Amino acid sequence: MELLAGYIFFIAIFYFLPWFVALGRGHNNTVAIFVLNLFLGWTFLGWVIALVWCFTSNIKEETA
């Protein structure tokens, strides 16, 4: 049972990888990337689009 929970956890982390990357980078469209990943990530094409989108340079400016 613990092994199954580990697999599910790993799959969930991998599935939401684009969202985690967008969060870590401070992307301006983090919520939109999450929504795209949630609803279209299962189509692989939607997941790849979300992954590419999270690496675009649309990040929040750091203020001093």
Descriptive overview:
The protein is mainly alpha-helical and 64 residues long. It has one domain (2-54). The protein has four helices and no strands. Helix 2 runs antiparallel to helix 3 (30-40), helix 2 (17-25) packs parallel to helix 4 (45-54) and helix 3 (30-40) packs antiparallel against helix 4. The protein is globular and about 50 Å long. The protein starts with a helix and ends in a 10-residue tail after the last helix. The mean pLDDT is 92.
Name a few traits of the molecule.
69% helix, 64 residues, single chain, 0% strand, mainly alpha, 4 helices
Brief overview:
With about 60 residues, the chain is an all-alpha fold.
Write the layout of secondary structure elements.
Blueprint (H helix, E strand, L loop, with lengths): L1 H14 L1 H9 L4 H11 L4 H10 L10
Helix pairs in contact: 2-3, 2-4, 3-4
Beta-strand segment tally: 0
Strand content: under 5%
Percent range of helical residues: 55-70%
Number of helices: 4
Order of helices and strands: HHHH
C-alpha termini separation: 49 Å
Q: What count of domains describes the coordinates?
A: 1
Q: How does the helix and strand content classify structurally?
A: mainly alpha
Low-confidence stretches: none
Q: What is the CA-atom radius of gyration, in angstroms? A: 13 Å
Quick check: average pLDDT?
Answer: 92
Largest sheet: none
- The coarse silhouette is globular
